[in-house]
Amino acid sequence: MYPSLTDLRRVNVFQQASDADLESLRQHSLVRAIEEKSFFFLQGDEAAYLYVLTSGRAKIVQSNVNGQQVTLRIIYPWQVFGALGAVSNQVALYPASAQALENSVGLAIESAFFRKLMASDSHLAFGMMNLMTAYIQEIQERYRELALERVEQRVASALIRLAGQAGVKSETEAGIELVFSRQDVAELTGATLYTISRLLSDWERKSIIQSGRERIRILRPHELVTIASTSA
Amino acid sequence: MEDPKAYSQKTVTEFLAIAPPASRAFFQLKMFCPKCPLARFCTLTDAMAIYEIEAEIFFEAVSKHLDQNSKQGE
After folding, report:
1. What's the rounded mean pLDDT across residues A48-62?
2. How far is A60 from chain B (nearest CA, A)?
3. Which of A71, A179, A232, B8 has the fewest CB within 10 Å, making it most exposed?
4. Cα separation of A145 and A80, whole Å?
5. Does the beta carbon of B50 lie under 8 angstroms from any beta carbon of chain A?
């Protein structure tokens, strides 16, 4: 189902756009339902569409020639992803893949049409600039973490970031629940699965977290904050 | 605003949305909750317990900053 104009205004990039522009965006888009673990697009595909996730969750992953992959970011509903084709003057290729973490739906908007629309609607152009600036800031933060922080700090920071974005506090059980596997955390932090398992087991022994299959429950969030901010 | 103590069970995020100048009280007491991504999960009571700050001291600091802010606005 196509999202309403009201729903589209939940997307930061579209907040100030006119109704007429949002309507024309809808006319140049299609709705794509993607099953868990399938892809919206693959690294190296022509970036013909930019996407708005309307339900579910997705991850943006980049692989090297050996097939090792790193997760660049997690996408939640009403966030834009795959926007490179809309801001590049040349034929652009997606630099990473977008994989559904659960059954998801996205609105695929023609990149070429969006680029044309941005030229006449400065609100859309500023919205995209804000999005790109947020990406740069996030990547700078991740780079600092990689360059300066111990793996323990990086993993704690990643869990805090994920909890802030998507954590759920249960009414019945203690703690903040995250629906992510150890593999997801490894790919987000550039650590090996072995390191993640060792760290999470250690934190589990200290009752900072509980972890299960595809789930991590943060029992003592402030302990993680302390780990994330404590240098060696 | 009414007595800030009435908000003890509100989360830090909810409380700061109602009383933004109270963030200065947090920083004065070296509580870094206003910048924490997990602030939406912690109540004021949780935050005081984590930083081992007595309720009387915390709410006195909050009231002081809220008073100062309202005087500046007059």
Report:
1. 95
2. 21
3. A232
4. 25
5. yes
Number of domain units in chain A? 2
Structural domain boundaries in chain B:
4-73
The CATH number of whichever domain residue A221 belongs to comes to: 1.10.10.10
Tens-binned pLDDT, residue by residue, of chain B (74 aa) = 778 888 999 999 999 999 999 999 999 999 999 989 899 999 999 999 999 999 999 999 999 988 887 777 65
Per-residue pLDDT tens over the stretch A82-128: 998 888 878 899 999 999 999 999 999 999 999 999 988 888 999 99
Top mean-pLDDT range of A61-70, A110-119, A161-170: A110-119
A205 Cβ under 8 Å from any chain B Cβ: no
Which SS3 state, helix, strand or coil, does residue A164 take? helix
Residue of A nearest to B49 (CA): A222
Contact residues, chain A, for B14 at CB < 8 Å: none
Question: Are both A19 and A128 inside the same structural domain?
Answer: yes
Same domain, A220 and A175: yes
Distance from CA of A163 to the nearest CA of B (A): 7
Question: Are both A79 and A162 inside the same structural domain?
Answer: no
Chain A and chain B share a number of CB contacts under 8 A equal to 25
| Distance from the A16 Cα atom to the nearest Cα atom in chain B, whole angstroms | 23
Contacts of A102 (CB under 8 A, 6+ apart): A36, A56, A57, A179
Nearest to A160 among B38, B42, B50 (CB): B38
Give the whole-angstrom CA distance, residue A215 versus residue A182.
8
Distance CA A199, CA A185 (A): 11
CA quadruple A144, A150, A153, A159: dihedral, nearest 10: 80
Please tell me if residue A221 touches chain B, with a CB cutoff of 8 Å. Answer: yes
Dump the DSSP string for A145-158: HHHHS-HHHHHHHH
Structural domain boundaries enclosing A185: 150-229
The pLDDT-based confidence of A67 (bands split at 50, 70, 90) is: confident
